[in-house]
């Protein structure tokens, strides 16, 4: 076999290996857009009012059961999936047909419009589910409070 042919084969195998490495690293560096739904985004906060069409428990975020409300907005005739909080945390006494106002982080995946709730207004009461920085109210409270847990103001870092 001529020397040029083996050099060409080595070069081709290096190039193919490099292409495979780039493709695999891009899937880690640039995760699918659907991963974005897991994050509360301060730059995507909206407020929407509408009628409750359905209430469910759904497995979200590593299998935790969440209270999820489906709400139909009257202005744009759009249905929103509203993720409230874990099923065990401060359940709103909302039922089908009720009118609610939700403030939270908006995301759209394909044809599904999703709001991760920050607050929910119902019957003149406002229920808070996340603080002004978007951190869940059900995290870090209770068990450790006052027992060595640092209580300095939390700050968002990285993706939010």
Features:
five-stranded mixed barrel; 6 strands; 2 domains; 38% strand; OB fold (Dihydrolipoamide Acetyltransferase, E2P); 160 residues; alpha+beta; single chain
Tell me what you see in this structure:
- The chain is α+β, with helices and mostly antiparallel strands.
- It has two domains: 3-30; 35-128, Beta Barrel (OB fold (Dihydrolipoamide Acetyltransferase, E2P)), CATH 2.40.50.140.
- It contains one helix and six strands; from the N terminus they run αββββββ.
- It has one helix at 3-29, and strands at residues 45-60, 64-73, 79-86, 99-109, 112-122, 125-128.
- Strands 1-2-3-5-4 form a five-stranded mixed β-barrel.
- Strand 4 (99-109) and strand 5 form a beta hairpin.
- The longest helix has 27 residues, at 3-29.
- It is elongated and about 75 Å long.
Radius of gyration from the alpha-carbon trace, in angstroms? 23 Å
The CATH architecture of the largest domain can be given as Beta Barrel
What's the helical proportion of residues?
10-25%
Q: Unreliable segments (pLDDT under 50, ≥5 consecutive)? A: 142-153
Outline type: elongated
Secondary-structure topology with pairs:
Elements: H1 3-29, E1 45-60, E2 64-73, E3 79-86, E4 99-109, E5 112-122, E6 125-128
Parallel strand pairs: 3-5
Antiparallel strand pairs: 1-2, 1-4, 2-3, 4-5, 5-6
């Amino acid at each position: 076999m001529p020397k040029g042919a083996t050099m060409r084969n080595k070069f081709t195998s290096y190039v193919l290996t490099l292409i495979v490495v780039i493709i695999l690293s891009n899937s880690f560096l640039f995760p699918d857009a659907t991963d974005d739904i897991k994050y509360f985004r301060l730059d995507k906060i909206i407020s929407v009012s509408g009628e409750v069409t359905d209430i469910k428990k759904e497995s979200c975020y590593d299998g935790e059961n969440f209270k999820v409300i489906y709400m139909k907005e009257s202005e744009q005739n759009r249905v929103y999936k509203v993720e409230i909080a874990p099923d065990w945390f401060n359940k709103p006494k909302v039922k089908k047909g009720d009118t609610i106002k939700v403030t939270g982080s908006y995301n759209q995946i394909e044809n599904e419009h999703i709001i991760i709730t920050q607050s929910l207004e119902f019957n003149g009461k406002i229920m808070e589910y996340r603080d002004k920085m978007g951190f869940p109210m059900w995290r870090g409270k209770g068990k450790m409070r006052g027992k060595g847990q640092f209580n300095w103001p939390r700050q968002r870092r990285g993706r939010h």
